[in-house]
Every structure is written in structure tokens, then in C-alpha cells.
Specification:
single chain, mainly alpha, 0% strand
Length: 147
């Protein structure tokens, strides 16, 4: 079952329950997923669906950051983020990221990573954690392993 179908089902349930804010949030997420589907002109992969959900969460966070204390905007986007996170992939924690980094290092034959090798390591690492881990956290874990 695609995420479009899952979100549509959740939206219909919110409509039946009379939960207008949830229905509206899910409607926006459904629109974003459908737009990506239309742009691609083919079914979305799970990774592409997850990227859309994560992008919507990020946009909500940016709206909160630029709300300048307007409480209604903060509350609305905080609620949307909560709803969207139900459909977001589980993100890797620092221990899981470190395990993937160790696998990549072993694959590259690197015992002790050095700063000059960071580009090579990241090039091999990022495709393995894309959509599953926050890139800033990945960078921080790798930097700590080098230090």
C-alpha cells in the first residue's frame, strides 16, 4: 500500500471523526505526495515518499522558526509536524549511524579515518543512510570518530 493510499485513508478517517485540523494537515500532505507523483509520472518509491514527508516536516519547522512569535502559526505547524511524523520513516540514532560508518570504513579498508578522507567516506556513506538519518547527525558522528 502506497503512502498516498495510507494518508488518504487516514484523512477520510479524520473526516468521519470530525477532526478538522487533522483532516486539513493530512490533506496538505496528500497534495504534496500527489504533486510528486504527477511530476514523476510514475509510482513513487518508498524512499521518494519518505523524502516528501520529511520535506513537509522541514517546511513546518522553517515556518515555526520564522513565525516571529505569532502563536497561531507556531501551533498550526507544530500540530502538522506531529501528524506528518506518523508517516515519516524511523530515523537512525547515532549508534546505528556509527555502525554504518564502521561498515563503510571496513569496505574502504580504512582503520582510522582522517580528515582528508572525509569526502571519500561521505560519498560512500550518504547513499546508505539517505532518508534514514539526519545528515547533520551523520556528519557529527563521523567527525567524532575522526577526533
Amino acid at each position: 500500500m502506497s503512502k498516498i493510499d495510507t494518508v488518504r485513508g487516514a484523512m477520510m478517517q479524520a473526516l468521519k471523526d470530525g477532526d478538522k485540523p487533522r483532516k486539513e494537515a493530512l490533506s496538505l500532505l496528500l497534495s504534496a505526495l500527489k504533486n510528486k507523483f504527477i511530476d514523476k509520472r510514475a509510482d513513487l518509491t518508498e524512499e521518494e515518499e519518505n523524502a516528501v514527508v520529511l520535506r513537509e516536516i522541514k517546511q513546518c519547522q522553517e515556518s515555526i522558526d520564522t513565525a516571529n512569535g505569532r502563536q497561531e502559526i507556531v501551533e498550526e505547524n507544530t500540530y502538522r509536524m506531529k501528524v506528518y511524523s506518523e508517516f515519516a520513516p524511523k530515523m537512525m540514532d547515532s549508534e546505528e549511524i556509527a555502525a554504518v560508518i564502521r561498515e563503510v570504513l571496513a569496505g574502504l579498508g580504512i582503520d582510522k579515518p582522517e580528515a582528508k578522507q572525509k569526502g571519500l567516506i561521505m560519498k560512500n556513506l550518504m547513499p546508505r543512510v539517505k532518508g534514514k538519518a539526519d545528515s547533520a547527525l551523520v556528519n557529527r558522528v563521523l567527525t567524532e570518530m575522526m577526533g
